[in-house]
Specification:
heterodimer, A: about 220 residues, alpha/beta, Arc Repressor Mutant, subunit A, 2 domains, B: about 450 residues, Beta-Lactamase, Heat Shock Protein 90, 6-stranded mixed beta sheet, 5-stranded mixed beta sheet, 13 strands, WalR-like (chain A), phosphoprotein (chain A)
């Protein structure tokens, strides 16, 4: 994964770059919007990490310019602002995802993976498959090893999102955003409770466990 | 604020004083004018009477008798200088003409006849041009008589007196007016200084002082009332700030101290990878608590600023709340509690969905945290007299009487030791969300547990 980091705070940029390099990805760093626009239009990147607050230009405007010049590279915006309206403004400008500082590297990495994976895998795929587990998106039917499994609506949505990002870390925050549409973090174990119920239905009766917990970070679905 | 319109008496007093002054001055001038006019009319009447007397005498006794009567048998002729002197001494000048020839009298009067008595200017060498009554009438076909009578001394004296009275009155009447203005300003200045002094004291400590205020309905008292209301607000704010600062200090100090301790432990266990990992996990979890507190503060601030109002939509409260409650049902079951959901269909409200989600989440989280282990918790939504009524409650143990009034305060926690997780902002956020939707939240009294009633106005009211 080739990643362009546009971030004026050197510490944050190094923190991200080191994490990426440890995971075997390559990172290029720019500390201003002008240089970023130039790099993004001359080199092919898989994903761009864009800080919202840059010294000379608002990150939103920079993203808008990139999109106007037909650069479709997925963009994730980083920001200190956490309000829904700010998030919506970011997405409207052409960003694909929005992450609030401070964040765990695993959270950022999971989102980067989700963004880069989304392209080859058509989001409109009608059938999702992981090992012997299948999910029909038109009929909302879930089967494992030919056994039909009944899921509650939230359980279905969680599973669908996990299966759209197979072998990728999906964090608790991502699930809260995608499944519940929350822009805030409820204190208790809302996500954990539902994931554990989902597991009781799709993993417990079978020999192999498909949904794995990454402690303190989130969940991965894989065979 | 409501009777603000009556608060202009100072302006009124000044206006009335000035109007009265202008009126009195105008009346004085008018009276003087009328008085002088009257004197003039009187003089004209006397003048005409004199004319008829002369005519009568002439008609009865002839010219020589007339001349004898006025001791003019020597038929004097007065030129300019003599005419002026005579006019000055006698207050009368005349000329008698035989056809168009001057028979006797002044050479200074015009020959052309003037039948009616008129006022005209006469240029005297002794004095300034004077205003005088003039007539030139015929006695018969042969003789005609011209008479000139300047304004009487009585008129001139009266006029001068009246002018002085007017000037003096105009000049002197300013003194009481200035005095009135001065005393009002002085009174104001004293009161403003008093307000200023009170405010200086308030600046040192907001709770100490309120500004005195009597019942006079004027601008300054209106200002004082507003200032006092503002000071009450500020002092509330000050108290809130104090509670908040203490709250922030406590809520941040505890996890930060733990992080500091973990860092020291890491230094000691630097060679032991397993221990290091435990320390890292714990430190990281404590830092998350700090960040969560800050996020909640920022969120609370954003809600209170009212910027969400732009994103309000017609929201089906029933389906939003039902969805959320059903999501929470397993969480309650897993903790041994029971969540009873009773929601009337299609209750609508103009609202921000994200905020309504958080409102319900925070109330349910609150019930999860503070209700007893096997509590019955319920969430109910129904239409109310003029709004939607949401109730979230549990059957125990409830909130103690001394804590009831503080549950919505920022960083207030019934549990003084702050040993339970959470940061005391949950219900403050709930209250802020209610406020931004123009709703009301109430903690019901005389209940076994904590029961919150939330009234949200329906579409039509917003």
């Amino acid at each position: 994964m080739k990643v362009l980091i546009v971030e004026d705070d050197l510490d944050t940029a190094q923190f991200i770059a080191r994490g990426l390099e440890q995971s075997g990805d390559s990172a290029t760093h720019c500390d201003n919007a002008e240089q970023a626009l130039l790099s993004a239009s001359t080199h092919p990147f898989d994903v761009i990490i864009f800080d919202r607050l840059l010294p000379s230009m608002d990150g939103l405007d920079a993203v808008r310019i990139l999109r106007q010049s037909k650069i479709v590279t997925p963009i994730i915006m980083l920001t200190a602002l956490s309000e829904t309206s700010d998030r919506v403004a970011g997405l409207n400008a052409g960003a694909d995802d929005y992450l609030v500082k401070p964040f765990a590297f695993s959270e950022l990495y999971a989102r980067l993976k989700a963004l880069t994976r989304r392209q080859p895998l058509t989001p409109k795929a009608l059938e999702l498959v992981v090992a012997d587990l299948t999910l029909e998106r038109t009929t909302r039917q879930v089967k494992r090893a030919d056994t039909h499994i009944d899921l509650m609506p939230k359980e279905y949505q969680i599973l669908e999102y996990l299966m759209l990002n197979p072998k990728q870390l999906v964090t608790k925050t991502m699930l809260l955003e995608q499944v519940w549409g929350f822009s805030f973090d409820p204190k208790t174990s809302l996500v954990q409770t539902h994931v554990s119920r989902l597991r009781n239905k799709i993993d417990k009766p079978f020999t192999t466990e498909l949904i794995k917990t990454v402690r303190g970070s989130g969940y991965i679905i894989s065979d | 604020m409501t009777h603000m319109k009556n608060y202009h008496w100072v302006g009124k007093v000044l206006k009335i004083t000035l109007t009265a002054w202008v009126l009195v001055c105008s009346m004085l001038i008018a009276i003087s004018y009328l008085l002088l006019q009257q004197i003039k009319t009187q003089q004209t009447d006397e003048f005409i009477e004199m004319q008829s007397e002369v005519t009568h005498l002439y008609n009865e006794d002839g010219l020589n008798a007339l001349l004898d009567e006025y001791e003019l048998s020597h038929r004097p002729i007065w030129h300019k200088h003599e005419s002026d002197e005579r006019l000055d001494e006698e207050g009368l000048l005349f000329s008698l003409y035989d056809k168009n020839t001057l028979l006797l009298g002044s050479t200074e009067l015009t020959i052309t006849p003037v039948d009616e008595a008129i006022w005209q200017k006469y240029d005297s060498t002794l004095d300034e041009p004077i205003s005088a009554l003039y007539i030139h009438f015929t006695l018969d076909e042969r003789y005609s008589l011209a008479i000139l009578q300047p304004l009487t001394h009585h008129y001139i004296d009266t006029r001068n007196t009246l002018i002085s009275i007017n000037i003096w009155f105009t000049a002197l009447s300013w003194l009481p007016i200035l005095f009135i203005i001065f005393s009002i300003t002085q009174q104001y200045a004293v009161r403003i200084v008093r307000i200023k002094n009170a405010l200086s004291k308030v600046a040192e400590s907001p709770d100490s002082e309120r500004i005195d205020c009597d019942n006079t309905p004027d601008e300054l008292n209106a200002l004082v009332i507003s200032l006092n209301a503002m000071l009450d607000d500020i002092s509330d704010l000050h108290t809130t700030m104090k509670t908040m600062s203490v709250g922030i200090a406590h809520d941040l100090k505890t996890p930060l101290t733990r992080v500091a301790n973990r860092l020291q432990c890491m230094q000691q266990d630097i060679t032991n990878p397993d221990m290091l990992e435990t320390h890292l996990d714990k430190a990281s979890s404590d830092l998350h608590t700090v960040i969560a507190t800050f996020n909640n503060l920022v969120r609370l601030n954003a809600i209170e600023s009212g910027k969400h109002k732009n994103g309000f939509v017609e929201l089906n409260l029933s389906s939003t709340i039902l969805d959320l409650a059903q999501s929470y049902e397993p969480v309650f079951i897993d903790t041994g509690r029971n969540l009873e959901i009773s929601i009337v269909d299609d209750v609508f409200c103009l609202a921000d969905e994200d905020l309504i989600n958080q409102l319900v989440c925070n109330l349910l989280e609150n019930a999860l945290e503070y209700s007893s282990q096997d509590a019955q918790v319920w969430i109910r939504l129904q239409n109310h007299i003029d709004g939607a009524l949401l109730q979230v409650g549990d059957n125990g143990p409830g909130i103690s009487v001394q804590d009831r009034s503080h549950v919505f305060d920022k960083f207030y926690r019934a549990d003084i030791s702050r040993s339970k997780p959470g940061n005391g902002l949950g219900l403050s956020i709930v209250k802020a969300i209610c406020k931004v939707h123009r709703g009301e939240i109430q903690l019901l009294e005389h209940q076994k547990g904590a029961v919150f009633n939330i009234e949200l106005p329906l579409l039509s009211q917003q």
